[in-house]
Write a structure and sequence with these properties.
about 280 residues, alpha+beta, Jelly Rolls, 2 domains
Length: about 280
């Protein structure tokens, strides 16, 4: 059974929306963004459009929304990006007490022509918080020079997410993996743990890391650990043993050996050289 969709704009008084100024968008003409904003929604919210001329993106930060197309309904949960192609009617509504979302309308130009598909599609587990922060700064920063510095961030995340090629998606998944690793260096990261997170085989992960980083997965892990250790040696007075444990080494000898191999000196000598 087909869903009947008609144009609707029902936004209650508890909803807050911040639109990026049209003059700011005009300076990003290479991105072909016609309208964009950040929304904190609560209470009554339902927006529907029939056969829109632009592509529409919704990225959920927190809470949950609901997307309805002529053919199907989709839950819009945190870290989900919904891409609604031009001329495809849709309705979005709030489905939780609070729904925080960023949205963009993209012109149906050559740059975004690969988005002109027959149906809406959903991309899960997207790490687009920097895109959100860039949009908030474009809205709130009065200094034009500072705003211009944010535009490359917006451009990068839009292009990286929407370009649609398999290599780019693979690179994003690797980036997200090692971003997670960097947040939890103390965790016992093994090849198996990394592969389980990405659903890759060990040889496949090894090939990808060699191509992307010029390092094996374990070499990349060690590099991240030693770089964090360098920062802690410089900026704290923590004992070397404490730092070793913090970055994932239970054995101080193994830590010192790895550190000296990459830094050329022992941890203690490295610290003395910074004073």
């Amino acid at each position: 059974m087909k869903n009947h969709i008609k144009d609707m704009l029902d936004i209650g008084p508890n909803c807050s929306e911040r639109f990026i100024d049209a003059d700011v968008l005009a300076k990003m003409n290479n991105l072909d963004i016609t309208l964009a904003g950040c929304s904190n929604l609560s209470g009554r919210y339902c927006v529907a459009r029939t056969a829109p001329l632009e592509h529409t993106l919704f990225y959920t930060l927190r809470g949950q929304g609901k997307l309805t197309t002529i053919d199907k309904g989709y839950p819009l949960v945190a870290n989900t990006l919904a891409i609604l192609p031009t001329k495809q009617s849709f309705e979005v509504s709030i489905a939780s007490q609070q729904w925080d979302v960023v949205w963009l309308n993209l012109a149906n130009t050559k740059r975004w022509q690969h988005l002109a598909l027959e149906k809406a599609f959903i991309i899960e587990d997207q790490k687009l918080e920097p895109l959100h922060l860039a949009m908030e700064l474009l809205y709130s920063e009065p200094d034009a020079t500072l705003r211009e510095g944010v535009i490359p961030i917006l451009s990068y995340y839009l292009n990286a997410t929407l370009r649609g090629d398999n290599q780019n998606k693979t690179n994003n998944r690797l980036h997200n993996l090692f971003q997670d690793i960097e947040k939890r260096l103390q965790y016992d990261w093994t090849i198996e743990a990394m592969c389980n997170q990405l659903h890759y085989s060990p040889p496949h992960l090894h090939r990808l890391c060699q191509t992307q980083f010029g390092k094996s997965p374990i070499q990349k892990l060690i590099h991240l650990r030693i770089e964090r250790a360098k920062s802690l040696l410089i900026n704290t007075r923590w004992p070397v043993q404490h730092i070793a444990t913090y970055v994932g080494y239970t054995n101080i000898f193994n830590f010192s050996k790895s550190f000296k191999k990459l830094a050329g000196v022992s941890p203690s000598k490295f610290r003395r050289g910074q004073n």
